[in-house]
Write a structure and sequence with these properties.
Layout lengths: L1 H11 L32 H4 L14 H5 L44 E16 L2 E13 L1 H7 L5 H15 L11 E7 L7 E6 L6 E10 L11 E11 L4 E9 L12 E13 L1
Antiparallel strand pairs: 1-2, 1-8, 2-3, 3-4, 4-5, 5-6, 6-7, 7-8
Helix pairs in contact: 1-5
Length: 278
């Protein structure tokens, strides 16, 4: 599947549209009217309480799971989950930050080391009558070799612009194949009781990083359906996989507006490009 997607992208190098029906929810309740803005980053104890019963969501987790090591993640115990090959992106590739904004910036002293496309779900919890972001789970697939192979015929940004829509439409989640290079989850923020933070890790080597959000903009493409673009900064002492991570070129994942059942959890399919700098 992954090889077929990459082959198609190399030939077309510019797909931008994706079926609206792919941005579906995994859980059954239909008690939401979506709005254009991105959900708030979890900031309170109730926001960060993303535990749920199995009937609420197949990807729910308890507070202890969220704070624990990768061995307690939902994919624990599946021997087929192993790291994929990581190829550094070509030196000519530049992280595609949009023009005309200052919220997302490139650190002058850091270099791009990993470029990936992700496929996963954004989790939301009904909190005080509205849907609040409560974490995410995703598989990340390295695209360094693809960027190297397509560099002579297409710009890196044109290639990466097409990857998220393709993966949202065609790559299942969860799935055991193809083998992901990295994984993404949320954990309890170190030294903080009332928040959760994004974490990326290699499930084989254990290399990881936990980060805080330091910048965000609405998706320039479709802020109604696509989650925001983010700049994340590593928390000191919480891993060395990266110093800065960007979530860009998002597709799907958005869920905002009113909800009826307090504590109910929904998971919305998404894909995005993640870029790792050190």
């Amino acid at each position: 599947m992954l090889a077929a997607l990459f082959t198609t992208l190399a030939l077309l190098a510019g797909a931008t549209a994706y079926p609206a029906t792919t941005a579906s929810c995994w859980s059954a309740p239909a008690d939401v009217a979506a709005s254009a803005s991105d959900a708030a980053w979890p900031a309170s104890a109730s926001d960060a309480a993303w535990s749920a019963s199995a009937s609420d969501s197949a990807w729910s987790a308890s507070a202890s799971d969220a704070a624990a090591s990768p061995s307690s993640a939902p994919w624990s115990g599946n021997s087929t989950w192993s790291t994929g090959t990581i190829t550094p992106p070509p030196a000519s590739f530049v992280v595609p930050l949009p023009d005309g904004q200052t919220n997302l910036t490139l650190p002058a002293d850091q270099q791009l080391t990993i470029a990936t496309v992700s496929r996963g779900v954004q989790n939301y919890t009904c909190t005080n009558g509205i849907w609040v972001s409560s974490g995410a789970l995703a598989n990340l697939y390295d695209v360094g070799a693809l960027l190297e192979a397509t560099a002579p015929v297409a710009s890196g940004q044109k290639v990466t612009d097409g990857l998220s829509p393709l993966f949202l439409a065609a790559q299942p989640f969860p799935a055991d194949s193809p083998t992901p290079s990295l994984k993404h989850e949320f954990v309890a923020t170190p030294d903080a009781v009332a928040a959760i933070s994004p974490r990326f890790f290699d499930p084989v080597t254990g290399s990881s990083v936990t980060l805080n959000k330091v910048g965000a903009i609405n998706s320039p493409d479709n802020s109604t359906a696509d989650i925001s673009w983010l700049q994340l900064e590593a928390i000191g002492g919480q891993g060395d996989l990266a110093s800065t991570v960007y979530r860009l070129q998002t597709a799907g994942g958005q869920l905002t507006g009113p909800c009826k059942i307090e504590g109910n959890v929904r998971s919305v399919d998404y894909a995005a490009m993640y870029y790792f700098l050190k």
